[in-house]
Here is the input.
Amino acid sequence: MKSLVTRLRAFATAASLVALLALSACGGGSDSPADPTSANPAPPATTGASALAWQTVGRMGPGVNFGNMMEPPQEGDWGLKVEQSYITAAWQAGFRTIRLPVRWSNHAEPAFPYTIDPVFMARVESVVDAMLAQGFHVVLNMHHHRQLDGDPLDPGEFAVSESDLEPRFVGLWSQIARRFALKSERLLFELYNEPHGRLTAQSWNALAATTLQTVRISNPQRLVLISPVSYGNTSALGTLAMPNDRNLLATFHHYEPFTFTHQGATWIPTPPPVGTPCCNAEQLSQIESAITHAKAWSDVTGYPIFMGEFGANSMADMASRVAYTRAVRTAANARQIAWAYWEFAAVFGVYDPVAGQFRPELTAALLAP
Ligand code: BGC
Here is the structure.
Protein backbone atom coordinates (compact mmCIF):
# COMPACT_ATOMS: atom_id res chain seq x y z
CA MET A 1 0.00 0.00 0.00
CA LYS A 2 1.19 3.46 -0.73
CA SER A 3 1.26 5.99 2.04
CA LEU A 4 -1.02 8.99 1.96
CA VAL A 5 0.48 11.77 -0.07
CA THR A 6 -0.98 15.21 0.06
CA ARG A 7 -1.35 16.03 -3.56
CA LEU A 8 -2.06 19.69 -3.55
CA ARG A 9 -1.94 20.50 -7.19
CA ALA A 10 -1.69 24.16 -7.93
CA PHE A 11 -3.90 25.67 -10.52
CA ALA A 12 -3.01 29.11 -11.73
CA THR A 13 -5.57 31.17 -13.52
CA ALA A 14 -5.21 31.68 -17.24
CA ALA A 15 -4.35 35.30 -16.54
CA SER A 16 -1.47 34.49 -14.23
CA LEU A 17 -0.07 31.98 -16.75
CA VAL A 18 -0.07 34.60 -19.47
CA ALA A 19 1.65 37.01 -17.09
CA LEU A 20 4.33 34.44 -16.24
CA LEU A 21 5.07 33.80 -19.89
CA ALA A 22 5.20 37.51 -20.61
CA LEU A 23 7.74 37.88 -17.80
CA SER A 24 9.83 35.04 -19.16
CA ALA A 25 9.74 36.46 -22.64
CA CYS A 26 11.22 39.77 -21.57
CA GLY A 27 13.63 38.18 -19.10
CA GLY A 28 11.82 39.97 -16.29
CA GLY A 29 11.22 38.94 -12.71
CA SER A 30 13.53 38.74 -9.74
CA ASP A 31 15.12 35.84 -7.97
CA SER A 32 12.60 36.01 -5.16
CA PRO A 33 9.70 33.74 -5.45
CA ALA A 34 8.28 30.45 -4.62
CA ASP A 35 4.71 30.98 -5.41
CA PRO A 36 3.63 30.39 -9.00
CA THR A 37 1.01 33.07 -8.64
CA SER A 38 3.54 35.57 -7.27
CA ALA A 39 4.03 38.73 -9.26
CA ASN A 40 7.79 38.16 -9.25
CA PRO A 41 8.54 34.58 -10.24
CA ALA A 42 12.12 33.51 -10.91
CA PRO A 43 12.73 33.97 -14.63
CA PRO A 44 13.40 30.89 -16.74
CA ALA A 45 16.84 30.99 -18.34
CA THR A 46 16.93 32.02 -21.96
CA THR A 47 20.00 30.10 -23.14
CA GLY A 48 17.92 27.29 -24.65
CA ALA A 49 18.81 23.68 -25.25
CA SER A 50 21.42 21.99 -27.44
CA ALA A 51 20.78 20.20 -30.73
CA LEU A 52 21.36 16.95 -28.81
CA ALA A 53 18.46 17.74 -26.46
CA TRP A 54 16.11 18.57 -29.33
CA GLN A 55 17.17 15.56 -31.40
CA THR A 56 16.72 13.26 -28.42
CA VAL A 57 13.15 14.32 -27.62
CA GLY A 58 12.43 13.84 -31.29
CA ARG A 59 13.64 10.25 -31.01
CA MET A 60 12.11 9.29 -27.67
CA GLY A 61 8.82 8.08 -29.16
CA PRO A 62 5.99 6.86 -26.99
CA GLY A 63 6.98 6.23 -23.38
CA VAL A 64 5.72 4.39 -20.34
CA ASN A 65 6.55 4.59 -16.65
CA PHE A 66 7.69 1.41 -14.94
CA GLY A 67 5.89 2.72 -11.85
CA ASN A 68 5.21 1.00 -8.53
CA MET A 69 8.26 -1.21 -9.07
CA MET A 70 11.45 0.46 -7.78
CA GLU A 71 9.96 3.48 -6.00
CA PRO A 72 8.21 1.74 -3.08
CA PRO A 73 10.30 1.57 0.10
CA GLN A 74 11.57 -1.81 -1.21
CA GLU A 75 11.14 -3.18 -4.74
CA GLY A 76 8.09 -5.45 -4.69
CA ASP A 77 6.38 -3.75 -1.71
CA TRP A 78 3.60 -2.50 -3.99
CA GLY A 79 3.14 -5.80 -5.79
CA LEU A 80 5.46 -5.43 -8.79
CA LYS A 81 9.12 -5.96 -9.59
CA VAL A 82 10.85 -5.13 -12.84
CA GLU A 83 10.81 -8.24 -15.04
CA GLN A 84 12.67 -8.81 -18.30
CA SER A 85 9.36 -9.98 -19.77
CA TYR A 86 7.87 -6.51 -19.10
CA ILE A 87 10.80 -4.82 -20.84
CA THR A 88 10.45 -7.07 -23.87
CA ALA A 89 6.66 -6.70 -23.97
CA ALA A 90 6.85 -2.90 -23.76
CA TRP A 91 9.26 -2.80 -26.69
CA GLN A 92 7.22 -5.21 -28.80
CA ALA A 93 4.08 -3.15 -28.16
CA GLY A 94 5.82 -0.08 -29.58
CA PHE A 95 6.99 1.91 -26.55
CA ARG A 96 10.42 3.45 -27.08
CA THR A 97 11.08 5.22 -23.77
CA ILE A 98 10.86 3.92 -20.23
CA ARG A 99 10.79 6.30 -17.29
CA LEU A 100 12.13 4.39 -14.30
CA PRO A 101 11.07 5.83 -10.93
CA VAL A 102 13.53 4.85 -8.17
CA ARG A 103 13.43 5.58 -4.44
CA TRP A 104 17.12 6.04 -3.66
CA SER A 105 16.64 7.74 -0.30
CA ASN A 106 15.74 4.50 1.44
CA HIS A 107 18.82 2.67 0.18
CA ALA A 108 21.72 4.77 1.42
CA GLU A 109 23.55 5.54 4.64
CA PRO A 110 22.00 8.45 6.57
CA ALA A 111 25.34 10.17 7.23
CA PHE A 112 28.20 11.36 5.01
CA PRO A 113 29.33 9.99 2.56
CA TYR A 114 25.74 8.67 2.18
CA THR A 115 26.88 5.44 0.56
CA ILE A 116 24.20 3.80 -1.56
CA ASP A 117 23.63 0.13 -0.75
CA PRO A 118 25.82 -1.66 -3.34
CA VAL A 119 23.26 -4.43 -3.83
CA PHE A 120 20.54 -1.89 -4.62
CA MET A 121 22.84 0.09 -6.91
CA ALA A 122 23.73 -3.08 -8.80
CA ARG A 123 20.05 -4.00 -9.12
CA VAL A 124 19.14 -0.59 -10.57
CA GLU A 125 22.11 -0.79 -12.92
CA SER A 126 21.08 -4.23 -14.17
CA VAL A 127 17.55 -2.96 -14.85
CA VAL A 128 18.81 0.11 -16.69
CA ASP A 129 21.25 -2.04 -18.69
CA ALA A 130 18.43 -4.39 -19.71
CA MET A 131 16.29 -1.47 -20.88
CA LEU A 132 19.15 0.14 -22.81
CA ALA A 133 20.06 -3.23 -24.36
CA GLN A 134 16.47 -3.53 -25.60
CA GLY A 135 16.90 -0.20 -27.38
CA PHE A 136 14.89 2.08 -25.07
CA HIS A 137 15.62 5.62 -24.08
CA VAL A 138 15.56 5.46 -20.27
CA VAL A 139 14.71 8.31 -17.91
CA LEU A 140 16.23 7.36 -14.55
CA ASN A 141 14.95 9.52 -11.73
CA MET A 142 14.83 10.04 -7.99
CA HIS A 143 11.28 9.44 -6.71
CA HIS A 144 9.48 9.70 -3.37
CA HIS A 145 12.15 11.23 -1.14
CA ARG A 146 9.41 11.92 1.39
CA GLN A 147 11.49 13.90 3.88
CA LEU A 148 12.78 16.23 1.16
CA ASP A 149 9.21 17.33 0.43
CA GLY A 150 8.32 17.47 4.13
CA ASP A 151 5.83 14.61 3.72
CA PRO A 152 5.19 11.94 6.35
CA LEU A 153 7.55 9.01 5.92
CA ASP A 154 6.28 5.73 4.51
CA PRO A 155 6.37 2.61 6.69
CA GLY A 156 9.89 1.20 6.55
CA GLU A 157 11.52 4.57 5.85
CA PHE A 158 13.96 6.44 8.06
CA ALA A 159 14.64 10.14 8.55
CA VAL A 160 18.05 11.78 8.34
CA SER A 161 19.20 14.87 10.19
CA GLU A 162 17.90 18.12 8.71
CA SER A 163 21.47 19.30 8.11
CA ASP A 164 22.21 16.17 6.05
CA LEU A 165 19.02 16.24 4.00
CA GLU A 166 20.07 18.34 1.02
CA PRO A 167 23.79 17.44 1.07
CA ARG A 168 22.65 13.82 1.04
CA PHE A 169 20.41 14.45 -1.98
CA VAL A 170 23.41 15.88 -3.83
CA GLY A 171 25.61 13.06 -2.52
CA LEU A 172 23.20 10.43 -3.81
CA TRP A 173 23.22 12.04 -7.25
CA SER A 174 27.01 12.20 -7.19
CA GLN A 175 27.12 8.42 -6.74
CA ILE A 176 24.36 7.71 -9.27
CA ALA A 177 25.99 9.95 -11.85
CA ARG A 178 29.38 8.31 -11.42
CA ARG A 179 27.93 4.82 -11.64
CA PHE A 180 26.04 5.53 -14.87
CA ALA A 181 28.54 7.91 -16.44
CA LEU A 182 29.64 5.55 -19.22
CA LYS A 183 26.18 4.41 -20.29
CA SER A 184 24.61 5.13 -23.66
CA GLU A 185 23.43 8.66 -24.32
CA ARG A 186 19.93 7.09 -24.46
CA LEU A 187 20.06 7.23 -20.66
CA LEU A 188 18.73 10.51 -19.24
CA PHE A 189 18.68 11.61 -15.61
CA GLU A 190 15.70 13.31 -13.98
CA LEU A 191 16.76 15.08 -10.81
CA TYR A 192 13.56 14.72 -8.82
CA ASN A 193 9.95 13.65 -9.23
CA GLU A 194 7.27 16.21 -8.42
CA PRO A 195 9.08 18.55 -6.00
CA HIS A 196 6.56 20.13 -3.62
CA GLY A 197 5.81 21.03 -0.01
CA ARG A 198 9.07 21.80 1.79
CA LEU A 199 10.67 22.45 -1.60
CA THR A 200 9.67 25.95 -2.63
CA ALA A 201 10.50 27.28 -6.08
CA GLN A 202 13.43 29.19 -4.61
CA SER A 203 14.91 26.31 -2.61
CA TRP A 204 14.32 23.80 -5.39
CA ASN A 205 15.94 26.03 -8.04
CA ALA A 206 19.01 26.32 -5.81
CA LEU A 207 19.15 22.60 -5.00
CA ALA A 208 18.64 21.57 -8.62
CA ALA A 209 21.45 23.88 -9.77
CA THR A 210 23.87 22.52 -7.16
CA THR A 211 22.92 18.94 -7.97
CA LEU A 212 23.38 19.53 -11.69
CA GLN A 213 26.89 20.90 -11.07
CA THR A 214 27.72 17.68 -9.23
CA VAL A 215 26.24 15.52 -11.99
CA ARG A 216 28.28 17.47 -14.56
CA ILE A 217 31.57 16.45 -12.91
CA SER A 218 31.12 12.87 -14.15
CA ASN A 219 28.58 13.45 -16.94
CA PRO A 220 29.52 16.64 -18.76
CA GLN A 221 27.09 16.04 -21.65
CA ARG A 222 24.31 13.76 -20.38
CA LEU A 223 20.78 15.05 -20.82
CA VAL A 224 19.15 15.96 -17.52
CA LEU A 225 15.46 16.67 -16.88
CA ILE A 226 14.21 19.14 -14.28
CA SER A 227 10.63 19.49 -13.05
CA PRO A 228 9.04 22.62 -11.61
CA VAL A 229 7.62 22.56 -8.08
CA SER A 230 3.90 22.08 -7.32
CA TYR A 231 4.18 18.40 -8.30
CA GLY A 232 5.47 19.29 -11.74
CA ASN A 233 2.29 21.18 -12.58
CA THR A 234 2.57 23.44 -15.63
CA SER A 235 1.27 26.34 -13.53
CA ALA A 236 4.68 26.39 -11.79
CA LEU A 237 6.81 26.38 -14.95
CA GLY A 238 7.22 30.14 -14.75
CA THR A 239 9.09 29.73 -11.46
CA LEU A 240 11.54 27.15 -12.80
CA ALA A 241 15.01 28.67 -13.25
CA MET A 242 16.76 26.40 -15.72
CA PRO A 243 20.49 26.36 -14.88
CA ASN A 244 22.82 27.80 -17.48
CA ASP A 245 23.35 24.51 -19.31
CA ARG A 246 22.22 23.47 -22.77
CA ASN A 247 21.85 19.71 -22.25
CA LEU A 248 18.67 20.09 -20.26
CA LEU A 249 14.98 19.35 -20.71
CA ALA A 250 12.13 20.42 -18.52
CA THR A 251 9.47 17.94 -17.49
CA PHE A 252 5.90 18.26 -16.26
CA HIS A 253 3.06 16.01 -15.13
CA HIS A 254 -0.47 16.26 -16.45
CA TYR A 255 -3.38 14.81 -14.50
CA GLU A 256 -6.13 17.23 -15.57
CA PRO A 257 -9.03 16.81 -15.18
CA PHE A 258 -7.92 15.64 -11.72
CA THR A 259 -11.49 14.78 -10.65
CA PHE A 260 -11.52 12.27 -13.50
CA THR A 261 -7.95 10.88 -13.39
CA HIS A 262 -7.79 10.49 -9.61
CA GLN A 263 -11.33 9.33 -8.86
CA GLY A 264 -11.26 6.80 -6.04
CA ALA A 265 -7.46 7.12 -5.68
CA THR A 266 -6.70 5.39 -2.38
CA TRP A 267 -3.30 7.10 -1.95
CA ILE A 268 -4.69 10.61 -1.55
CA PRO A 269 -6.48 11.78 1.57
CA THR A 270 -9.76 12.94 0.01
CA PRO A 271 -10.05 11.31 -3.40
CA PRO A 272 -12.63 12.64 -5.85
CA PRO A 273 -15.68 10.36 -5.99
CA VAL A 274 -15.84 7.50 -8.46
CA GLY A 275 -18.23 7.88 -11.40
CA THR A 276 -16.90 10.91 -13.30
CA PRO A 277 -16.73 10.15 -17.05
CA CYS A 278 -14.51 11.83 -19.63
CA CYS A 279 -14.35 13.85 -21.83
CA ASN A 280 -16.82 16.71 -22.26
CA ALA A 281 -15.86 20.05 -23.81
CA GLU A 282 -14.71 21.53 -20.51
CA GLN A 283 -12.57 18.50 -19.73
CA LEU A 284 -11.05 18.56 -23.20
CA SER A 285 -10.21 22.19 -22.72
CA GLN A 286 -8.46 21.38 -19.40
CA ILE A 287 -6.47 18.68 -21.19
CA GLU A 288 -5.46 21.08 -23.96
CA SER A 289 -4.66 24.06 -21.82
CA ALA A 290 -1.92 22.45 -19.70
CA ILE A 291 -0.24 21.14 -22.83
CA THR A 292 -0.61 24.46 -24.63
CA HIS A 293 0.99 26.16 -21.65
CA ALA A 294 3.90 23.68 -21.59
CA LYS A 295 4.48 24.27 -25.30
CA ALA A 296 4.39 28.03 -24.83
CA TRP A 297 6.97 27.76 -22.03
CA SER A 298 9.17 25.64 -24.26
CA ASP A 299 8.89 28.12 -27.14
CA VAL A 300 9.81 31.03 -24.88
CA THR A 301 12.74 29.39 -23.13
CA GLY A 302 14.11 27.26 -25.96
CA TYR A 303 14.13 24.06 -23.87
CA PRO A 304 12.25 20.92 -24.90
CA ILE A 305 9.67 19.73 -22.41
CA PHE A 306 8.80 16.12 -21.62
CA MET A 307 5.40 15.07 -20.28
CA GLY A 308 6.71 12.53 -17.77
CA GLU A 309 3.34 11.36 -16.39
CA PHE A 310 -0.29 11.32 -17.42
CA GLY A 311 -2.94 8.66 -17.00
CA ALA A 312 -6.19 7.75 -15.31
CA ASN A 313 -6.88 5.49 -12.35
CA SER A 314 -8.59 2.17 -13.12
CA MET A 315 -11.52 3.20 -10.90
CA ALA A 316 -12.68 5.26 -13.91
CA ASP A 317 -14.64 3.45 -16.62
CA MET A 318 -12.55 2.05 -19.45
CA ALA A 319 -14.30 3.91 -22.28
CA SER A 320 -13.58 7.21 -20.53
CA ARG A 321 -9.97 6.23 -19.82
CA VAL A 322 -9.50 5.44 -23.48
CA ALA A 323 -11.04 8.77 -24.57
CA TYR A 324 -8.90 10.67 -22.03
CA THR A 325 -5.71 8.85 -22.99
CA ARG A 326 -6.21 9.44 -26.69
CA ALA A 327 -7.02 13.11 -26.10
CA VAL A 328 -3.87 13.73 -24.05
CA ARG A 329 -1.65 11.81 -26.45
CA THR A 330 -3.10 13.62 -29.47
CA ALA A 331 -2.67 17.05 -27.87
CA ALA A 332 0.95 16.28 -26.94
CA ASN A 333 1.87 14.77 -30.29
CA ALA A 334 0.38 17.76 -32.11
CA ARG A 335 2.92 19.94 -30.28
CA GLN A 336 5.89 17.54 -30.58
CA ILE A 337 5.89 16.99 -26.82
CA ALA A 338 7.34 13.57 -25.96
CA TRP A 339 5.55 11.70 -23.17
CA ALA A 340 5.45 8.71 -20.85
CA TYR A 341 2.16 7.19 -19.72
CA TRP A 342 1.67 6.54 -15.99
CA GLU A 343 2.07 3.52 -15.78
CA PHE A 344 2.85 0.02 -17.01
CA ALA A 345 1.18 -2.63 -14.83
CA ALA A 346 -0.26 -1.19 -11.57
CA VAL A 347 -3.46 0.79 -10.91
CA PHE A 348 -3.26 2.91 -14.06
CA GLY A 349 -1.69 0.02 -15.96
CA VAL A 350 -1.69 -0.36 -19.72
CA TYR A 351 -0.58 -3.97 -19.14
CA ASP A 352 -2.37 -6.64 -17.12
CA PRO A 353 0.37 -8.51 -15.23
CA VAL A 354 -1.99 -11.30 -14.15
CA ALA A 355 -3.19 -12.08 -17.68
CA GLY A 356 0.30 -11.32 -19.04
CA GLN A 357 -1.07 -9.13 -21.81
CA PHE A 358 -1.73 -5.53 -22.75
CA ARG A 359 -5.15 -3.96 -22.22
CA PRO A 360 -6.02 -3.58 -25.90
CA GLU A 361 -8.17 -0.42 -25.81
CA LEU A 362 -5.71 1.55 -23.67
CA THR A 363 -2.76 0.32 -25.68
CA ALA A 364 -4.45 1.42 -28.89
CA ALA A 365 -5.23 4.82 -27.38
CA LEU A 366 -1.52 5.24 -26.71
CA LEU A 367 0.07 3.57 -29.69
CA ALA A 368 -2.30 2.94 -32.60
CA PRO A 369 -2.07 5.37 -35.52
C1 BGC B 1 3.29 9.07 -8.00
C2 BGC B 1 2.43 7.85 -7.91
C3 BGC B 1 1.00 8.16 -8.23
C4 BGC B 1 0.92 8.89 -9.53
C5 BGC B 1 -0.49 9.30 -9.81
C6 BGC B 1 3.12 9.66 -9.31
O1 BGC B 1 3.96 10.74 -9.42
O2 BGC B 1 4.62 8.71 -7.83
O3 BGC B 1 2.55 7.34 -6.63
O4 BGC B 1 0.28 6.97 -8.37
O5 BGC B 1 1.75 10.02 -9.51
O6 BGC B 1 -1.03 9.95 -8.71
